[in-house]
Write a structure and sequence with these properties.
Layout (H helix, E strand, L loop, with lengths): L1 H14 L4 H12 L12 H34 L2 H12 L5 E4 L3 H12 L4 E5 L2 H10 L3 E3 L5 H6 L7 E4 L4 H14 L4 E5 L3 H10 L3 E3 L1 H17 L9 E3 L3 E5 L11 H8 L3 E6 L2 E4 L12 E5 L3 E3 L10 E6 L3 H13 L2 E6 L2 H11 L3 E5 L7 H12 L5 E6 L4 H9 L4 E4 L4 H12 L2
Parallel strand pairs: 1-2, 1-4, 2-3, 4-5, 5-6, 13-14, 13-15, 15-16, 16-17
Antiparallel strand pairs: 7-12, 8-11, 9-10, 9-11
Length: 435
């Protein structure tokens, strides 16, 4: 439109010798066909030019008008602008939580996260439920949470936690499997209605299991005992070794053309999943015939008895200071699994402020940091607490004796080289905090 007006004004200026303002005025009234008269009499060439300008301008003006109307219909009247805005909001999320299933439990979880000011995304396959989420202003992804593409749309690789709250234990199991594969450092809590399925979900990679009915019954019983002066009985708990296993049916295998039920009986393991031609089937029927190239998902049962469980265990705080987000997320998860309450920072200044604010039992500080380095952080912490109870561990990539001595002189309790095994730093901190 702008180019057409400019060309029209240029033509009148050079063909009819119109002044610049008059040329632009003539071009606009010609293109818009308002019906005003000619400013000056036109020559034959000027009239031919005007005819061409009218035809071209009519087409351009029509295209411009239709595009404008289409844009208004799409962005305003169709309501799609809210959906696009929500997708942009989800695309910016980091360290958020994902809620799979917006049922009765999911609603309560979402409400608590919203009230706490935490960022989260809800995944649900019901269009009616998604309308409710849109009315509440909750970010959501419509689709099946067992599909990797839906989890990726919810930015699972950038998430810090996931709740598998679908009202189907097999679906929760596959959500846990997919989530753990996509994000190994993710903290996963899953819902389970069946004690037998609970073990499988734990072995698939869940960090914890919730059972709404068990939790409600236990809470009611605890409240009753507390009100009547009763005592809670301490029991032992089973720690499950979590290890799902995929078995590939190779060429010549004796499992080919056998049924799922027959193979499960001979293996003495339940077959909870079947992958065929990149398609997963939850809990395949016993009559399903196994073919070459199939993958069977089984979970072995191994457990060990641990010490009696206490009523309340308060985890010790630990601060992790590192500018590498992968290392921070990995060790935050490892320390959480080891029974600590981790806090994280990505620079020396924010790490120092966090240590002074939280007063943790221990702090793991990288030597090379933006702002204050690990050496200065240790020195300032010791100056503030005069050799207090905070254990300081410096994490460095340089195995240098002089650097180690400098860190120890600055107040570090130990120095660990980054190339060491990840279990080493967990063990060092545990020994320092629990001598």
């Amino acid at each position: 439109m702008v180019v057409t007006i400019f060309l029209g004004a240029t033509g009148y200026h050079f063909i009819e010798r119109y002044p610049v303002i008059d040329a632009f005025y003539m071009a606009v009234i010609t293109i818009t066909t308002v019906g005003f008269g000619e400013i000056y009499p036109l020559s034959e060439i000027g009239r031919l030019f005007t005819i061409g300008l009218i035809l071209v301008g009519f087409v351009v003006l029509g295209f411009f008008g239709s595009s404008l109307v289409e844009l208004l219909l799409e962005r305003v009247w169709s309501g799609d602008i809210k959906g696009k805005k929500m997708k942009k909001q989800i695309a910016r999320l980091k360290h958020h939580h994902i809620i799979c299933g917006y049922g009765r439990v999911g609603k309560v979880a979402a409400q608590h996260l919203f009230e706490a000011g935490a960022s989260f995304v809800v995944i649900d396959s019901s269009p009616a439920t998604c309308e409710q989420l849109q009315e509440r202003g909750y970010p959501y992804v419509e689709g099946d949470a067992t599909r990797e593409s839906i989890l990726m749309e919810a930015r699972i690789k950038e998430a810090s936690g996931l709740l598998a709250l679908v009202q189907s234990d097999p679906h929760n199991l596959f959500i846990v499997l997919s989530a753990r594969e996509l994000n190994p450092t993710l903290h996963i809590i899953a819902r389970s209605e069946d004690k037998y399925t609970e073990k499988k979900i734990l072995k698939a990679g869940a960090d914890a299991i919730i059972s709404p009915f068990d939790s409600a019954g236990r809470q009611i019983a605890d409240n009753l005992l507390a009100a009547t002066g009763g005592h809670l009985k301490l029991t032992t708990v089973n720690q499950i070794q979590l290890q799902p296993e995929w078995i590939i049916v190779q060429e010549g295998s004796g499992m080919i053309n056998e049924s799922i039920a027959a193979i499960a009986h001979s293996m003495r393991h339940d077959i909870i999943g079947l992958r065929r031609n990149a398609v997963d089937m939850l809990q395949p029927t016993g009559e399903t015939v196994i073919l070459q190239g199939d993958q069977l998902l089984i979970i072995s049962e191994q457990s060990e008895i641990t010490a009696p469980e206490t009523l309340q265990v308060i985890p010790k705080k630990i601060v992790i200071v590192d500018d590498n987000p992968v290392i921070v997320r990995l060790f935050a998860r490892l320390f959480q699994k080891a029974g600590f309450h981790p806090f994280t920072a990505d620079s020396g200044d924010t790490g120092l402020a966090l240590i002074l604010q939280e007063k943790p039992a221990a702090a793991v500080v990288d030597f090379m940091l933006p702002g204050l380095n690990g050496l200065e952080v240790c020195r300032r912490v010791r100056q503030e607490y005069q050799g207090g109870p905070i254990k300081l561990i410096v994490f460095t990539g340089d195995d240098d004796l002089q650097l180690r001595m400098r860190c120890l002189e600055a107040g570090a309790d130990d120095v660990i080289v980054k190339s060491s095994d990840t279990a080493e730093i967990i063990g060092v901190v545990s020994r320092l905090v629990h001598p």
